[in-house]
Amino acid sequence: MSDGNQPPVDFKVVGQRPIRPDGVDKVTGRAQFGADFHLPGMLTGRIKRSPHAHARIVSIDASAAEKLPGVKAIVTGVDLDVGAGGDIEAGEHAAAMKDVAANVLAGDKVFYQGHAVAAVAATSPEVAAEALDLIVVTYEILPHVIDVDEAMMPGAPVLHDDMYTKGVTPKPAKPSNVAQRHVMGRGDVKAAFASAGVVIEGRYTTAAVHQGYIEPHACVASWGADGQSTIWCSSQGQFLVRAMTARILNLPLSDLKVIPAEIGGGFGGKTTVYLEPVALALSRKCGRPVKLVMSREEVFLASGPTSGASMDIKLAATKDGKITAAEMELRYQAGAFAGSPVNLGCMTAFACYDVENLALVGLDVVSNRPKVAAYRAPGAPMAAFAVESAIDDLARKLDMDPIDLRILNAVKDGAKTVYGATVRYSAFIETLEAVKAHPHYKAKLKPGQARGVAAGFWFNIGGESSAAVHVDEDGGATVVSSNPDIGGSRASMAMMAAETLGLPIERVRCTIADTTSIGFSGSTGGSRVTFATGMAVVEAAQKVVADLKRRAAQTWECDIAHVEWRDGVATCLDPSKNVKPLSMKVLASKSAKTGGPIAAEVSLNAQGAAAGYGVHVCDLEIDAETGRTTVVRYTAAQDVGRAIHPAYVEGQLQGGAAQGVGWALNEEYVYNKQGLLDNASFLDYRMPVASDLPMIDTILVEAKPNPRHPYGAKGVGEVPIVPPLAAVSNAVSALVGKRMTALPLSPVSVLAAMGKG
Amino acid sequence: MARVVSISSKVRDLTGGLDAFDVEAATVRGLIRALEAKFPGLGDLVENEMSLAIDGEIHQDAMLEPLSPGSEVVLIPRISGG
Question: Which end of chain A has fewer CB atoms within 10 angstroms, the N or the C?
Fold first, then answer.
């Protein structure tokens, strides 16, 4: 949709829906994923993992395994050399490399079931498995704690003796499982609550959930005799894998080349390393290439889910619905090491709303679970679940339409967020209005159905990116991107280059370069690639156009100011010259005569990313006998700036909504009393499949293209997972007649709420 | 003179609890130098772990970004994503 206020745009490629460039490879099985690489002499790697939730490693005896024929190398934590550690920018914040290394292979303690303890490289999977059994690890089992609130209680087992809560003055005298306390706020919350017309309170919890990418972590590492090493792997950032692996093994970056494989989903979960340093350490020890591939069970046990959360919220409002104040405490599971996205939860919680008085406290809490990793809009969905549930309570209490209540309180351009930024180029109100005008919102519900509405926000980011544009000898073009294509970026990069060059999209191809073939780039994450790397692509294409115009002027012996570039053709505007236009094909074929190959590379640090807002509507019904919830209609609307490839953008909205529905209804890590995970498989960890969901309708709101991007793009990948938790829960709450406060809304909990438990 | 405001508890640990203070600087690079001089460790923290909202717009690693007299600079945790 368009609001009619924007100047008309006359794009030929941007905004179209060309066929996916990676589609044929993926549906025919030709695409090469992380596990598909084979090298001569390659060994099979396997990892021995902790059977305990929390234990001290007394000793590791690998002598019997080393003697097993076919075993070529065994490594443990002592083979890593992270030195001073330091931080590296990763998925949701700077990653402490000492923690990343201790997560890759344990030091003197294991902190969760599945924590890697040792690894073996052998001539066959069978020998590797036998060798794992022969490695004897002696543990001193320690008390464990799983639940975030229990981990904060006095007397809870403390995971790290050197963890003193940061953000508390004076420094605490005793170590604690609370790694950090974040505080933010403004205004006079106390006074606002004292004069409130309405007060809403609630305590909410969400479970830890996994990103659920279909491709498990996989890599091949090869240590060269000259110390030059190569890793082939599936990740969200080849440069990130290089930086982390080199740091953990104390290598110069120039000695390590990382070649990105096709990626079968990541959603933030592949913005760190698990296998790569281990595979390279094994290869270094035996001099042969080593492949490591996680099983699905290992993915659940040992790769990062996102945090489960426990939250208290209190809203103050006037009787006509204006929210005047909010208090919130957010307690997020970090897993075994510090670093939950609770600060992002605090920053996003009220980002959709203009609330004058705010007090937010966020607690980053460790427990005996796998270290969390980023997951779309890290930290935001949990906070939005509490906030959007409370706003739904407010709407019901005041008998207001939930969209009208949100419009009344929505942020507008110029408003100051609690975290310091000023709202710019936002189309939240337009998105709410688009939902209100949509046939879904106007449709009558059938008996036994209910409707939920919720909103969500994500910052979106820019950052460092590199890209190159090469003009082929026949007048087509190749775009070289620095980011793995996880959500369709090959298409959007090629489209923006084609638009800028004036070529049809069929004449532009995009490839993903390894770490030695293009300048540095941040990872594919944070909804940054179409914005930041796209900006680099457009600037590189603009340089190419400038070069083509220069060459045309040289050929015609005219002033370059008299050369116009349009639709891939140079035209001479000098009336004194009687010359024919020069197409890109002609200019490319004669490049040797005008200065050599035509190409440009741009590296930049993109600033000016614009935030996005989403509003979701969910209709559902509940089977009164089984408690099973069925979503019968779902619409996701989003402020997208301008959609470069609308079908991919719609896919992002649909995918985020599907993952959010799973988060709301079924997904959770189930631990037993021993602190062991009881559902480490897709059979028992229930993600939604296609047959669980209706077609998810989408509304792309293009009312406010981002003027800081050449084609108006905003990031779109994170926002759509933020609203669904509350959209689903608000509908379920309406149906059962009781506020649902704990996710997932499994059949058992729904039946209990209906008084049938 | 730029007005520096923080919402970060890590910053508070280095400033003795201060959340807002004034610093003389014409660019982000100058601001970081001045922060390090005023509160040892803070310049490094801001350079390596934080973003800046300069008069409302978020910047990361924008060392050359100019600061106007009276600019508001909010120190915020770095934002990335999934």
Answer: C
3-state SS string over A670-719? CECCCCCECCCCCCCCCCCCHHHCCCEEEEEECCCCCCCCCCCECCCCCH
Residue of B nearest to A345 (CA): B79
In chain B, residues with a C-beta closer than 8 Å to the C-beta of A528 are 81
Size of interface A-B (CB pairs under 8 A): 124
Q: First vs last Cα of chain B: how many Å apart? A: 37
Dig out the tokens for A484 from the structure: 């793995």
The DSSP call for residue A532 is I
Q: A677, A654, A656, A659: which is closest to A719 by C-alpha?
A: A656
Give the C-alpha separation, A189 to A314, whole Å: 11
In CATH, what class is B2-77? alpha beta
Closest residue to B56, CB basis, from A182, A269, A421: A421
Q: How near does any CA of chain A get to the CA of B27, in Å?
A: 16
Distance from the B6 Cα atom to the nearest Cα atom in chain A, whole angstroms = 8
Q: Do A528 and B9 touch (CB under 8 A)?
A: no
pTM of the model: 0.96
Query: If you count them, how many residues does chain A have?
Result: 757
CB A526 within 8 A of CB A611: no
Q: Which of residues 5-44 of B touch A (CB under 8 A)?
A: 5, 7-10, 12-13, 17
Taken in order of first residue, the domains within chain A and their CATH numbers are 420-458+610-753 (3.30.365.10), 463-606 (3.30.365.10)
Residue A479 near residue A533, CB atoms below 8 Å: no
Question: CA-to-CA distance for A370 and A308, rounded, in angstroms?
Answer: 12
pLDDT digits (tens, 9 = 90+) for A312-360: 999 999 999 999 999 999 999 999 999 999 999 999 999 999 999 999 9
Distances (CA, A) of A35 to A238, A290, A292, A317, A417: 16, 11, 8, 55, 44
> Is there a contact between A166 and B74 if contact means CB atoms under 8 Å apart?
no
Q: Do A526 and B48 touch (CB under 8 A)?
A: no
Model confidence over A219-276: pLDDT tens digits?
A: 999 999 999 999 999 999 999 999 999 999 999 999 999 999 999 999 999 999 999 9
Distance CA(A521)–CA(A515), nearest Å, equals: 9
Helix axis angle, A238-248 relative to A97-104, nearest 10°?
Answer: 80
